[in-house]
Amino acid sequence: MKRIGTVVRTAQGLAVLRADATDEDATDAHSNEIGTIVLDDSLDEVGRVVDVFGPVDQPYLAVTPDAGVHLPALVGSTLYAR
């Protein structure tokens, strides 16, 4: 499990994360790819990455939530990639 970022807001039914700064030496450099499964700190699945946008060194990730996930409750939460 790898920390991918923090939810900064919700927009149009998506959670928007500010990704952690990329580390060129990271062994899992593909955790910010579209389709990545996203988990919360309780290891519950929150959704999947559907878009990556913004600056290359610290992009934003758009996550589509799974059914039953309350988006406003995620704001400020740290999320992880499986």
TrEMBL record:
InterPro entries: Gar1/Naf1_Cbf5-bd_sf, Transl_B-barrel_sf
NCBIfam families with a match to the protein in the record: PRK13149.1-2
Protein name: H/ACA RNA-protein complex component Gar1
